[in-house]
Design goal:
The protein is mainly α. It has one domain. It is built from 4 helices and 2 strands.
Length: about 110
Amino acid sequence: MCSKTIAFLMIGIFVVFSLSSYAETDETKKLKRVGVLTFVRIKGEIPVPEVMKTILDKYSGDIKYGLDLAGYGELYLPFIEQIETASFEEKQLPIGDKLMWMLFRARGKIKV
């Protein structure tokens, strides 16, 4: 009887810890270094707008998949149209700024 109680107690503790570790995966992650998990690796200097548009064409399927993962698949076509006509500019994000989500690759898989 005592061993059954201990077994149920251990299973209960395991379930509680499993659920708490699962809940932590949906929390906001704090970036400590930028450029480690990039969506597309670009070697050398920052590319000119024409190169960015070429990269967009090459990885359009991955972008669509990533937007679908984020729950914003309907934004794919407006995003592509906007990128084709937009001008690219370099900006800096101040420390502490929050991004609601972003696309990146980890171990070859696209993640949000």
